[in-house]
């Protein structure tokens, strides 16, 4: 039986930020959904994922993906429940992962948006995890670790933004491979979590080492034999400090450079460190590698279900909380995967 009409609420992208994102970059709008067409489904979004990449799309600067257009619904990954279907492949009540955006309901055409709508099995793990450890961030960790860094047992690996959605998975998978793992994170609470709960060997609170020299010195204390692999999420002086401690032929995976997302300049100040170490530095974007998603997803979901991959979520409540939560994510206020609960 149909439940029309549905009262949708959504955030539009309203204004380009100057540098720091402000809440007036977003505009709230209501709409009434009275029907869907043949071939369409209507999804009630339960969780919205907030991700650093959204900042890059709120800009006209050159990027690997198209910019978000003004006056369109803010893009974003979601999980939710199909509430109406006029598509033969979907039934009301099924749970799906899609890019449903910053809104309560997502009206979608699965046949033309095939890659973005996947049915998910929520019998063993909560649906929200498909936006985190067993979703895009987890797959990003899996790809950078396995396909770029490829660390051997006994090697020393460093990962920045270590308590976050990507970094927490990187470190846990690297520990499972027999590496010595050092995280870098902001604040003692995050560092304690990384070591005591996630099982990293050490974690450096970069806020206690606010420049290249002091951070490099601390890294040298914790990795006296040097660093073999670095998973970069941040950039800036943190990257400079790690580069100074690389071993010959070390590998660096550039996953993200969040310290510069507001447009701040984050140069590499000592490129000689790359020459001296003969390091390989590789940038990557996970959506370029859709071929590995099924394998990575299956492994990550299994690991979460078996309790060998630990995850943490920061959940803000209600669609209206999304702008503040997003601003917080860009400033490190999140602790674990940042989500917005929509039901
Ligand atoms: N290449 C790809 O395909 C791909 C895919 C997904 C994500 N990423 C990148 O991966 C990185 C992590 O993403 P995530 O989703 O896992 O986010 P997250 O780590 O859960 O959250 C972002 C974290 O970045 C840290 N941070 C923010 N500003 C910082 C600064 N100026 N200096 C140092 N640290 C800062 C904060 O942690 P602290 O409190 O510890 O500072 C914050 O909690 C981001 O750079 C993102 O763009 C890349």
TrEMBL record:
One of its GO terms (molecular function) is oxidoreductase activity, acting on the CH-CH group of donors, NAD or NADP as acceptor. Residues 22-340 form the Enoyl reductase (ER) domain. InterPro entries: ADH-like_C, ADH_N_2, ER, GroES-like_sf, MDR_fam, NAD(P)-bd_dom_sf. Pfam families: ADH_N_2, ADH_zinc_N. Keywords: Oxidoreductase. The keyword Oxidoreductase applies. This is NADP-dependent oxidoreductase.
């Amino acid at each position: 039986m149909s439940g029309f009409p549905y009262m949708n609420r959504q955030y539009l992208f309203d204004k380009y930020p100057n540098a720091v994102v402000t809440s007036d970059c977003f505009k709230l709008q209501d709409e009434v959904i009275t029907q869907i067409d043949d071939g369409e489904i209507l999804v009630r979004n339960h969780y919205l994922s907030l991700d650093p990449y959204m900042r890059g799309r709120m800009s006209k600067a050159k990027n690997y993906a198209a910019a978000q257009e003004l006056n369109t619904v803010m893009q974003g990954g979601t999980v939710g429940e199909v509430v109406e279907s006029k598509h033969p492949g979907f039934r009301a009540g099924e749970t799906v992962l899609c890019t449903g955006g910053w809104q309560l309901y997502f009206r979608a055409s699965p046949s033309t948006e095939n890659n973005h709508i996947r049915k998910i099995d929520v019998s063993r793990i909560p649906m929200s995890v498909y936006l985190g450890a067993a979703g895009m961030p987890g797959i990003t960790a899996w790809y950078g670790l396995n396909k770029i860094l490829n660390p051997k047992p006994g090697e020393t690996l460093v990962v920045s933004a270590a308590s976050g959605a990507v970094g927490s998975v990187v470190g846990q998978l690297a520990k499972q491979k027999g590496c010595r793992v050092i995280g870098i994170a902001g604040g003692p609470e995050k560092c304690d979590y990384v070591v005591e709960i996630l099982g990293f060997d050490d974690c450096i609170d970069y806020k206690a080492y606010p420049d290249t020299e002091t951070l490099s010195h601390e890294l040298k204390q914790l990795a006296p034999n040097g660093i073999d692999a670095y998973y970069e999420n941040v950039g800036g002086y943190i990257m400079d400090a790690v580069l100074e401690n690389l071993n010959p032929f070390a590998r660096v995976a550039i996953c993200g450079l969040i310290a510069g997302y507001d447009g701040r300049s984050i140069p590499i100040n000592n490129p000689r460190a790359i020459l001296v170490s003969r390091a390989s530095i590789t940038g990557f974007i996970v959506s370029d590698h859709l071929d590995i998603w099924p394998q990575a997803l299956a492994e990550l979901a299994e690991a979460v279900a078996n309790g060998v991959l630990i995850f943490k979520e920061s959940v803000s409540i209600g669609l209206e909380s999304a702008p503040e939560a997003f601003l917080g994510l860009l400033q490190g206020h999140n602790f674990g995967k940042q989500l917005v609960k929509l039901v």
